[in-house]
Design goal:
By secondary structure, the chain is of the alpha+beta class. Among the domains are: 88-205, no CATH class; 427-468 and 638-785, no CATH class; 493-614, Barwin-like endoglucanases (Beta Barrel). The protein is 53% helix and 20% strand. The strands form 3 sheets. Strands 12, 13, 14, 15, 16, 17, 18, 19 and 20 form a 9-stranded mixed sheet that branches. Strands 3-4-9-6-8-7 form a 6-stranded mixed beta barrel. Strands 2-10-1-11 form a 4-stranded antiparallel sheet, with helices on one face. Strand 3 (88-95) and strand 4 (98-109) form a beta hairpin. The chain is elongated, with a radius of gyration of 34 Å. The two termini are 28 Å apart.
Length: 785
């Protein structure tokens, strides 16, 4: 067996270029797999550990005002382990060197310290209940470079107060710190603060009362059963409907993001590894076919079929080990970087990054097994050839006139061009495999870029078509629409538009979903519901407009009746008709005319959100005046939301796209290079013969490189189709309640993917041209007599 071992190492060295290309392709697939799965597992483990160690609540509920005695009654319910009543308030904040409005939320800290949603103090100390001291969220502190001793101006219950920062904290309730009603974090304009319960309750006239409650249930309890008992108890006190962890804002965003990450953790590696395995199978099959004479000699010297098959299996295993080892190392390094990148948005006290050995072992075994199984057929086929048959040269190919030649299509072509077409026609199966390999490389490049195209369209639809306001104000309490006149009178305000939003649960048959109804004015210029063609909808005079995705989930059509439970006031339930469908990429809200929503709520012309169009020249003065209005709970600046989104896009999507682009380029080069190198190995004698017959190096190179060019040009359109299909599959799999990714592919994505493939072909062609120039004609033409 020593001779076979020496042969194996010699072949690895002789094929070092192809081996390296295959190993890099395989490393790309393995690294994507390890990166994605380790990032997902690490974030999931970090989140679950944080939830468990800091007592993250199972049930949340908001209400107007209830006595503390109600909390004791709730704690007596069966299945409840712990209850913590709190005071939670929306406030406006100001900092000396920051003119933009800042919204914040103040959460009370019980005198004995929180039992649920316990705080992690990153710096400083707990606040003193005798002073206006607060802890602030770490992201807000970092955005404004705040530390212990800093002062923050806050409008609390209509009065300005100066709060002293004494520490920086993190909470499992605010891992994903996003302003209410927003779609992206804005660390500079939204802050979470914690204040002693005694001070906060006094400031909001809530002594002996609470307006928020968090609950932890016993392990065997059913959360929905407890919510069904809890809601009637909270309703007399303005309860807005209890909900579980799955609807808690921070956890909901994390869950949907993790689901998308999990999908990519399995989809992307499957694509990459499929291409790698496909490539190694093609290479081994063609390598074996070129060594049929050597295999015959080995069999003539007494080597068994099993020994020969194991010899080539070891070749596959060694290439796999090289690719897998490189891929695992690169994947772990990339995974740590991606996990750290995600933790800039998800605030954890400690990052628990880990690479699961079981996962790595599974990747190794699956990759190696598929590579071996795929190449087994070719190896056994060659090993079963009889020695005398194997040592006989293959019969020369039989060429016949094709119908194209008979029709005269080849007449205008030079002889070298005819050779290219005849060879492709004779080996149609191998040509098709090469086209598929190159097309897959092109498709992978498209998958890496389409997410940016989709994100840009989502933002265009959201902030150019649906929401055109410069500012959006959230009121502490619903107010009569006369407030629009007061706001319109502010210098620099060009237009004010009132909206009434109310939380609801919509039910149909066995389905239910918690969302909001947005009541828009009959005549509007700033906020629109869009139809499925992304055109503004004229809201119907009765009924509601559902998002198409929600209608599809509920199997609803226009004209169907649904039940709507309103989570305000007496929490009435109404049957309403679906009279239209809208297209939304963020959330799944419901629209109706504001006056009809007011009627549904049995109230007058009331609003609780205001969209403003302003003159930029007056924006600082407008900001100052708005911060002085006590009834405003929060101010969202459109440009800031867009900037935050682009910042997130640059940090996460660009990094992910760059990784995929690099790995996609490796795969593209590996596929194209191996295709042309195998073709050179198979046709070396033929090309050398042409050189002896008087063909120039350029003409010989043209035959080989022209074939590569035709294969590449034929593969690119197929790659576009495969890429569009893969992107569509990804978009459908990544859709969630919080966002839906549209299938949109820009001209840049197509052009970039094609360019990478073409450049890979050009680089491969340059390498092959160098080999053709240095071809040893005597060595190539040596043959057995």
């Amino acid at each position: 067996m020593r001779a076979l071992t020496l042969k194996l190492w010699r072949e690895l060295w002789h094929l070092r270029g192809q081996v390296l290309a295959i190993a890099l392709v395989m490393a790309g697939g393995v690294s994507v797999c390890v990166m994605s799965l380790s990032t997902y597992d690490s974030l999931l483990t970090t989140r679950d550990t944080y939830y468990r160690e800091h007592g993250f609540a199972d049930i949340f509920a908001n209400l107007k005002r209830a006595p503390k005695s109600l909390a004791r009654r709730i704690e007596a319910l069966p299945g409840i382990a712990s209850v913590e009543p709190r005071v939670v308030a929306q406030v406006n904040l100001s900092l000396p060197d920051f003119s933009d409005p800042i919204s914040g939320v103040l959460v009370s800290i019980p005198a004995a310290g929180p039992r649920l949603n316990r705080l992690h103090i990153a710096a400083g100390r707990m606040p003193d209940s005798r002073r206006d001291e607060v802890l602030i969220s770490d992201t807000f502190a970092a955005a404004h470079n705040l530390s212990s001793g800093a002062a923050i101006q806050a409008v609390i219950n209509g009065r300005k107060r100066e709060l002293t920062v004494v520490g920086i904290a993190l909470s499992p309730e605010y891992i994903y710190q996003i302003p209410p009603g927003s779609i992206m974090p804005d660390f500079a304009r939204f802050g979470v603060m914690w204040m002693p319960e005694q001070r906060l309750a006094t400031a909001f006239n809530m002594e002996g009362a609470f307006n928020d409650i968090v609950i932890q249930v016993q392990p065997q309890a059913t959360i929905q059963d407890i919510i069904d008992q809890l809601d009637p108890m909270l309703q007399p006190y303005g309860g807005q409907g209890a909900y579980g962890r799955d609807l808690q804002l921070s956890n909901r965003f994390l869950r949907e993001e993790f689901n998308g990450l999990k999908m990519m953790a399995y989809l992307f590696p499957a694509i990459f590894l499929s291409v790698a395995v496909f490539l190694i199978n093609v290479v081994v099959a063609r390598l074996v076919s070129t060594q049929r004479d050597l295999i015959a000699v080995l069999k003539a010297f007494g080597y068994s079929t099993g020994a020969i098959a194991w010899h080539y299996a070891k070749l596959v295993i060694l290439i796999s080990i090289l690719g897998i080892g490189t891929g695992v190392g690169a994947g772990a390094w990339l995974g740590r970087g991606m996990t750290s990148l995600y933790t800039e948005f998800y605030r954890f006290p400690v990052l628990l990054y880990q690479v699961d050995p079981t996962m790595v072992l599974a990747v190794v075994l699956i990759t190696t097994a598929f590579a071996l199984v795929g190449s087994l057929r070719a190896v056994l086929h060659a090993a079963n050839i009889a020695p005398a048959e194997g040592m006989r040269p293959e019969n020369p190919p039989t060429y016949r006139l094709s119908w194209l030649e008979q029709a005269g299509f080849y007449k205008p072509l030079a002889q070298t061009s005819r050779m290219i077409l005849r060879h492709l026609q004779r080996r149609a199966g191998k040509s098709l495999l090469a086209i598929v390999g190159i097309a897959l490389a092109c498709a992978i490049m498209m998958v890496g870029n389409f997410q940016q195209d989709a994100a840009k369209l989502m933002m265009h639809v959201q902030f150019q078509l649906a929401q055109k306001q410069d500012l959006e104000l959230t009121l502490i309490e619903p107010a009569a629409d006369q407030v629009l006149s007061s706001l319109s009178a502010l210098p620099g305000v060009r237009y004010a538009e009132g909206i009434r939003s109310v939380p609801v649960t919509i039910r149909h048959q066995q389905h239910e979903y918690r969302t909001s109804i947005h009541g828009l004015p009959r005549e509007r210029h700033l906020q629109h519901a869009l139809d499925t063609e992304l055109k503004p909808i004229q809201l119907p005079s009765a009924g509601i407009v559902l998002t198409k995705r929600l209608a599809d989930n509920f199997n609803l059509n226009v004209g169907d009746q649904v039940e709507v439970e309103i989570h305000e006031g007496q929490r009435p339930r109404r049957m309403v008709q679906v009279n239209g469908l809208s297209q939304q990429y963020f959330d799944m809200a419901i629209y109706m005319r504001r006056d009809k929503l007011n009627e549904l709520l049995h109230e007058g012309p009331v609003i609780n959100r205001v969209a403003l169009a302003i003159d930029e020249r007056y924006q600082n003065d407008i900001y100052r005046r708005l911060k002085e209005i006590p009834r405003i709970a929060g101010i969202s600046i459109r440009q800031s939301v867009i900037a935050s989104f682009h910042d997130a896009l640059q940090r996460v999507l660009v990094a992910f796209t760059l990784i995929n682009a690099i790995l996609g380029t490796v795969i593209a080069f590996g596929v194209v290079y191996n295709t042309i190198r195998i073709a050179l190995a198979e046709r070396g004698r033929e090309l050398a013969s042409l050189r002896v017959l008087g063909y120039t190096r350029g003409e010989v190179a043209y035959i080989l490189l022209g074939e590569l060019s035709l294969l590449t040009l034929a593969a690119i359109p197929i790659g576009f189709l495969l890429g569009a299909a893969l992107c569509g599959f990804m978009a459908s799999m990544m859709a969630s309640d919080l966002y839906r990714i549209p299938l949109v592919l820009s001209a840049y994505t197509y052009a970039f993917s094609a360019l990478v493939v073409i450049l890979s072909a050009a680089a491969s062609g340059a390498i092959v041209w160098w080999r053709i120039r240095n071809m040893d004609l005597v060595a190539v033409l040596k043959t057995r007599e």
